[in-house]
Design brief:
The chain is α/β, with parallel strands linked by helices. It contains nine helices and five strands; from the N terminus they run H-H-H-H-E-H-E-H-E-H-E-H-E-H. It has a five-stranded parallel beta sheet, with helices on both faces. Bound molecules: 5-hydroxybenzimidazolylcobamide (HCB). 5-hydroxybenzimidazolylcobamide is lined by residues 45, 48-49, 51-52, 55-56, 62, 65-66, 69, 99, 104-111, 113-114, 150, 152, 154-157, 181, 183-186, 201, 203-204, 207.
Length: 217
């Protein structure tokens, strides 16, 4: 089966809140050797975004979003170990990268996709989790001394913490020791420029490309 039709099935399975179906699609993606990254981005993620739009239009409600997220996560549980196996570049030494969903934000699906794709690309990724207090992210940066730190914000109310985080890094005297990367649906290049973040990433591939370019010069 082609990449296009599996992506279409992945998208529809998330929109149908059907975890059995997302798992089935994930297994077929692996069995048929289709690009996992492409199906995640063009299939599962698109489905999730479309459910988000329906929520915005008040055509579906929070339980639907939770069911769609559960269906997507069920597929990711199957695809993640396979991606890691296929990647096999974990020792490529692109450096240590910390990532988390920022304080107040429990959205984690996108951040986890970025984490896995950076790992596959050769970064040593430390995933700090979701709703991580700003002081704890700063502390982790002091302890782990990463080349970069990514924060994910899915809400306008939590985006503002990315700005505070920049200020806290400066106050702690470590701002110039690392690259800051910001992402999440409401986050834009303009926002990154405004708060002084080094790299804006629209999606996981963008994060991989831009951060790899930073390391490789
Ligand atoms: Co949630 N939610 N939600 N939600 N949710 C959003 C984000 C809204 C936009 C929906 C809406 O109103 N249209 C909205 C935020 C509105 C706003 O502030 N502008 C919203 C709201 C309001 C809420 C609650 C407050 C609802 C409530 O309780 N009343 C609550 C949040 C509570 C809290 O955080 N304190 C809530 C809860 C939930 C869940 C739990 C039901 C579920 C999350 C499950 C989970 O993550 N474990 C959920 C979901 C799934 C969504 C939507 C539908 C999809 C988000 C998603 O997973 N997208 C979302 C609608 C939307 O975003 N359009 C909706 C798919 C992933 C793959 O995309 O953008 O997250 P992504 O990540 C991309 C990209 O941004 C980038 O790469 C990723 C991969 O390509 N990226 C990074 C992301 N992070 C990065 C970090 C980097 O360093 C680099 C790149």
């Amino acid at each position: 089966m082609s990449l296009e039709s599996l992506s279409e099935e992945a998208r529809n399975a998330v929109k149908a809140y059907d975890a059995k179906k997302t798992v089935d699609v994930a297994n077929r993606v692996i069995a048929e050797g289709v690009s996992i990254v492409d199906v995640i981005q063009d299939g599962f993620t698109k489905g999730m975004t479309e459910v988000g739009q329906l929520y915005e239009e008040k055509k579906v409600f929070l339980p639907h979003i939770m069911a769609a997220a559960a269906a997507m996560n069920a597929a990711m549980d199957i695809l993640t170990p396979e991606l890691e196996k296929q990647g096999g570049k974990a020792d490529e030494g692109l450096g240590k990268f910390l990532i988390c969903s920022i304080e107040g934000d429990i959205h984690s699906i996108g951040k986890d996709i970025v984490a896995i794709m950076l790992k596959v690309a050769g970064f040593s990724v430390v995933n700090l989790g979701r709703d991580v207090a700003l002081k704890d992210i700063v502390k982790a940066c002091q302890d782990e001394k990463p080349m970069g730190v990514g924060t994910s914000a899915l809400m306008t109310s939590t985006m503002v913490h990315q700005k505070t985080f920049e200020e806290m890094l400066k106050k702690a005297g470590i701002r110039d020791t690392l690259i800051t990367n910001v992402g999440g649906a409401p986050v834009t290049q303009q926002w990154a420029d405004e708060i002084g973040a080094d790299v804006y990433s629209e999606n996981a591939s963008d994060a991989v490309n831009k951060l790899t370019a930073v390391v490789k010069g």
